[in-house]
Design a protein that fits this description.
The complex is a heterodimer of chains A (167) and B (549). Chain A is built from six helices and eight strands, in the order E-E-E-H-E-H-E-E-H-E-H-E-H-H. Chain A has 167 residues and is an alpha/beta fold. Helix content of chain A is 29%, strand content 21%. In chain A, strand 6 (77-82), helix 3 and strand 7 (106-111) form a beta-alpha-beta unit. Chain A has a single domain, classed as TIM Barrel. The relative contact order of chain B is 0.09. Chain B starts with 5 loop residues before the first helix and ends with a helix. Chain B has 18 helices and 23 strands. Chain B has 549 residues and is an alpha+beta fold. In chain B, a hairpin with a 3-residue loop joins strand 20 and strand 21 (495-496). Classes of the chains: A alpha/beta (167), B alpha+beta (549). The A-B interface holds A 61, 85-89, 91-93, 95, 100, 114, 116-117, 119-121, 123-124, 142, 146-154, 158-163, 165-166 and B 7-8, 10-11, 14-15, 17-18, 21-22, 31, 35, 38-39, 121, 151-152, 154-163, 236, 239-240, 244, 274, 278-280, 283, 285-286, 289. The structure holds protoporphyrin IX containing FE and iron/sulfur cluster. Residues 46, 48, 53, 84, 86-88, 92, 165, 207-209, 349, 377, 415-416, 420-423, 460-462 of chain B line the site of protoporphyrin IX containing FE. Chain A: InterPro entries: UCP030820. Chain A: Pfam families: DUF934 (PF06073). Chain A: This is DUF934 domain-containing protein. Chain A: It comes from Alloalcanivorax xenomutans. Chain B: It comes from Alloalcanivorax xenomutans.
């Protein structure tokens, strides 16, 4: 089974992410934790909530975290897809999920997720990373801690550095 | 200047280590071109026509002489012995080796310098008036606010992969725009309310390049504690909604235009409402800490101004330089001196390693060990006592930095153009040189008065051609180099985009056309009327008639 970084540890990935193309061909399997696209979630929410196994939702760039806000208490996981690492919209989405909506479940970066972006992703609220399959996930783990200093606050500590120093 | 705390220094050192590892992985084939591209850009490294170009950050144009000497040794040891002052107050190296770049960054870090976020789709260097802190017309020193913004922008995790690059400038002069805030993604105008409390008028959506436009006022009055929250709100709206499909439509100016300023403001204000009063709110203590880095140097109180008057009476060349290249200072007995890096035949803004060292020596002796870079690609010694001006002038003259042409037709702002840049449609340096040679009579140049000529080799507008009183843009016509001319742009009192004159010209025609434009001006000007005012009074038509007639 594929690996994923969750809370700083490399673990087995127990979630299966289904794309909208896949969901045109098949139904959501009865067993196992799944991640579905936002549109699918909005269309099938009640049925999905009845599943015994967990369901998470994946946001694509251009979709609004606000559309998921009311459902967040029922969700253990929200994934944010990065079709290309250079598309930085997902950083604002993660931050919004954490600070505006107070989401405390897993926020998972999926797609073009690479070592050199993990630190920033972590700071804006991602706590899980599906590193791109062709990359060494052990090495990618180094990407979580390149800096011991940060000027701004972030979702973990909203205080900028000068407020932390004097505290 | 801002003085680093241990944490500022640690951050730089960690950055060098991170980048060294990234470069190693790239050279070992573990990072793709495209992946390394985004990382190296945020460390200032472009790959150019002939070699990489490295852009070194000079926060709001401030350098101490230790830093200037370090730049000199870097250009000598890692490059061809000269570097280039850019139109955003940065310093560019033209021929570093990719494999050397981590070492260059380590050298820079040893003097509190870096190349962080000098390219790439992130928040770039914060710029301001080159006379900040000494300009008698400013309402307060803008540099502490630049530094506050710099720290917020540095490695801001949410805004490292924006749709496009993002430039912020700060201005503290009430009725002029020396920082060009009107053509920045965000322009911050410092204002005071009736109690004298600092606040900011925040503009967004200006920019040059393709589709040049001036910004719109988004925040009419943002109280100083809220500055960062307000900027963050604007950046978040841009990060979420800026166009990412077409790089030519990706700047914030296109978003502001597409939504309209009112809608954009509504979105930004909604974000701001949530951030206001939170942990980003600036504290009096922190602002005071940063302001304490920008205190006045030990100005002398015994400056002998009679000595200056004597020298002005006796030396015509000195007199001319004094009136052209020095500026009034907030402190009696002091002037700000601009070193023009515009000697005919040199690339505008270029400076050699030895010249950098000479400038550092002069700054140590005459200007409290501080040097500034300007967006007109010159350098400034901001605090020179009037009784030392004559000595300084003689030494600057020997170095070739006393050409008395600041703000005149031969003080041309130009990008490197086709001689160096892979994106160029046309060369720009020979055009600058042609104009400088045509106007080689200093008396005539002085008689013409203030005139901004700006040249860019392509639409990217590195030479800010849109805001030149006369703007020259390299265009490609069936593989040949042509030049399009605009008139009436302004980056002096206010920012305004110039108007196209008509069909473009071949390179050998350009100097002749400039000559005709000048002739029309001379035939029409009123007593003491500068070029731009004549243009604004008589309009484009008289110029067109003569040039195309
Ligand atoms: C030597 C090679 C250079 C290359 C390849 C280069 C590349 C570019 C490119 C691609 C752009 C537009 C794209 C973008 O917005 O990022 C740009 C914009 C710009 N460059 Fe350069 N540049 C070079 C040199 C310079 C120099 C020497 C200066 C300073 C004189 C400069 C100053 C600027 C400025 C101010 C802009 C922004 C104009 C605006 O949109 O406001 N560049 N450059
Ligand atoms: S304006 Fe064009 S030609 Fe000139 S430096 Fe910029 S990208 Fe190159």
């Amino acid at each position: 089974m594929a690996k994923v970084i969750v809370n700083g540890e490399i673990v087995e990935n127990t979630w299966r992410r289904l794309t909208s193309e896949e969901l045109e061909q098949q139904d959501v399997p009865a067993e196992g934790a799944v991640i579905v696209p936002l549109a699918y979630w909005l269309a099938h929410r009640d049925a999905l909530l009845e599943r015994a196994a967990p369901v998470g939702v994946c946001l694509e760039p251009g979709e609004e975290p606000a559309d998921l806000a009311a459902d967040l208490p029922a969700l253990p996981l929200v994934a944010v897809n990065f079709p290309a690492f250079k598309d930085g919209r997902g950083y604002s989405y993660a931050r919004e999920l954490r600070t505006r909506y107070g989401f405390e479940g897993e926020v998972r970066a999926v797609g073009d997720v690479l070592q050199d972006q993990l630190f920033y992703m972590h700071r804006v609220g991602f706590n899980a990373f599906e590193v791109r399959a062709d990359r060494d996930i052990e090495e990618a783990l180094n990407g979580l801690r390149p800096f011991s200093v940060t000027y701004q606050g972030d979702v973990h500590d909203e205080r900028p550095i000068y407020r932390r120093q004097s505290a | 200047m801002y003085v680093y705390q241990d944490y500022d220094q640690r951050l730089l050192e960690e950055r060098v280590a991170q980048y060294r590892d990234q470069t190693r992985r790239y050279l070992a084939g573990q990072l793709s071109e495209d992946e390394f591209l985004a990382l190296r850009l945020q460390n200032g490294l472009y790959i150019q026509r002939y070699a990489p170009m490295m852009r070194i950050s000079v926060p709001y144009g401030m350098l101490n002489t230790t830093q200037v000497r370090k730049l000199a040794s870097i250009t000598r040891d890692y490059d061809k012995g000269f570097c280039h002052v850019s139109t955003r107050q940065n310093i560019q190296l033209n021929w570093p080796e990719v494999a050397d770049t981590p070492d260059i960054l380590a050298e820079l870090a040893s003097v509190q310098m870096h190349a962080i976020q000098t390219s790439g789709n992130c928040i770039r260097n914060i710029t301001t008036d080159e006379y900040a802190g000494v300009n008698p017309r400013e309402i307060e020193d803008p540099r502490p606010w630049c530094e506050v913004i710099r720290q917020w922008a540095t490695f801001n995790p949410e805004f490292a992969y924006l749709p496009r690059k993002f430039k912020i400038a700060v201005n503290a002069v009430p009725d002029a725009d020396p920082a060009l805030i009107g053509v920045h993604d965000i322009g911050v105008q410092i204002v005071h309310d009736h109690n004298g409390e600092t606040g900011f008028q925040v503009w967004a959506g200006g920019g040059l390049g393709r589709t040049p436009m001036t910004g719109e006022v988004i925040g009419e009055f943002v109280a100083w504690p809220d500055l960062l929250a307000y900027l963050e709100a604007i950046l978040r709206v841009y990060n979420k909604y800026g166009n990412r499909d077409n790089k030519y439509k990706a700047r914030i100016k296109i978003l502001v235009k597409a939504l309209g300023a009112d809608k954009f403001r509504e979105l930004a204000e909604a974000e701001f409402a949530e951030l206001k009063g939170g942990a980003m709110t600036l504290t009096r203590e922190e602002v005071a800490r940063i302001k304490a880095c920008f205190v006045d140097p030990d100005y002398r109180t015994d400056v002998d101004t009679a000595a200056l008057r004597n020298a002005l009476d006796q030396h015509r060349a000195f007199n001319r330089w004094y009136h052209t290249n020095t500026r009034a200072h907030k402190k009696d007995g002091y002037r700000s001196v601009t070193l023009t890096l515009k000697k005919t035949g040199r690339i505008p803004g270029d400076i050699t390693d030895e010249q950098l060292e000479a400038v550092a020596d002069l700054a140590d002796r005459y200007a409290f060990s501080e040097v500034r870079t300007t967006h007109q690609q010159n350098m400034v010694l901001a605090d020179v006592a009037e009784d030392e001006l004559y000595d300084l002038w003689r030494q600057l003259d020997a170095l070739g930095f006393a050409t008395p042409n600041l703000g005149l037709i031969t003080d041309i702002v130009s990008c490197p153009g086709g001689d160096l840049c892979a994106l160029a449609n046309a060369k720009s340096v020979p055009i600058a040189e042609g104009i400088q040679r045509q106007f080689d009579d200093l008396d005539f140049v002085h008689d013409l008065g203030p005139l901004d000529v700006n040249i860019s080799g392509c639409m990217n507008a590195c030479g800010h051609h849109h805001i030149g009183h006369i703007g020259i843009l390299g265009v490609d016509k069936k593989g040949k180099e042509f030049y399009q001319i605009t008139l009436g742009g302004r980056g002096d009192r206010q920012s305004r985009i110039g108007e196209k004159m008509g069909p473009s010209f071949e390179s050998h025609e350009v100097t002749g056309v400039i000559g005709k434009i000048i002739r029309v001006y001379l035939d029409n000007r009123l007593e003491n009327e500068p070029f731009i005012s004549t243009y604004e009074r008589i309009g484009m038509d008289p110029f067109k008639e003569v040039v195309y007639g």
